[in-house]
Amino acid sequence: MVIFAGMSGAFLSILQRLLNTDNTANPVAKLSMLSDNWLNIFLTPLTGAIFAVILYLFFAAHLITGSVFPELVLPPKSPNIEVTGGILAPETPADPNKSEQKIIDQPIPMQFVDFLNMAGPKSGVDYTLLLLWSFIAGFAERFVPDNLMRLVRRQSKTDEQSSSS
Questions:
Q1: Spatial contact of 64 and 58, defined as CB atoms under 8 Å apart
Q2: d(CA 160, CA 164)
Q3: Which residues of the chain have pLDDT under 50?
Q4: What secondary structure does DSSP assign to 40-94, as a single string?
Q5: Alpha carbon 110 to chain centroid distance?
Q6: Half-sphere exposure of 118 (CA within 13 A, CB side)
């Protein structure tokens, strides 16, 4: 739905630009302008979809938060489990009579499929806000790139301050 909302916003942006051109212009010139920019017409919804996904990742990483932004719920971390085989923990003596041995606790990384299946808006209001912001990301072409640059600049300033102290 995020991708669809971003594409819809970008498509509506294109339509608005086309409809806001000079109405007294020669129709042949308008048609020529449209045919010369056909690649742009197809690529703009694609960039809108990409920007909507990037904005979704901003929300998932809690880089953009506030009451007007959606709150996303992430899947729980996978628990550490005991399995057979592998590297024995140093405190576990090797016993050839035991078929199962305790393995060193290592966190199991979250799989991307789990993230896609289980991460999402916390409530209906958050879902609405997510779709609204995804639409804006596609409609306002500079919204996501400008915010990304702002985050990079803020992080650079933080890194400079911490290295100078």
A1: yes
A2: 6
A3: 81, 83-84, 88-89, 101, 103
A4: HHHHHHHHHHHHHHHHHHHHHTTSS-STTSPPEEPPPPBPP---SSSPBPTTS--
A5: 16
A6: 11
Q: Please give the pLDDT value at position 17.
A: 78
Closest CA to 131 of 74, 70, 73: 70
Please name the residues in contact with 10: beta carbons below 8 A apart, sequence gap of 6 or more: 44, 45, 46, 47, 48, 49, 138, 139, 141
Taken as a whole, the chain contains a residue count of 165
CB 119 within 8 A of CB 72: yes
Neighbours of 22 (CB within 10 A): 8
Q: How high is the pLDDT of residue 88?
A: 47
Q: pLDDT tens for residues 79-105? A: 554 544 555 445 555 555 555 545 455
pTM exceeds 0.85 for this model: no
Per-residue model confidence (pLDDT) at position 135:
95
Please report which helix (H) or strand (E) contains residue 121, including its range. Answer: strand 120-121
pLDDT of residue 28: 67
Question: In the chain, count of helices (H) and strands (E)?
Answer: 6, 2
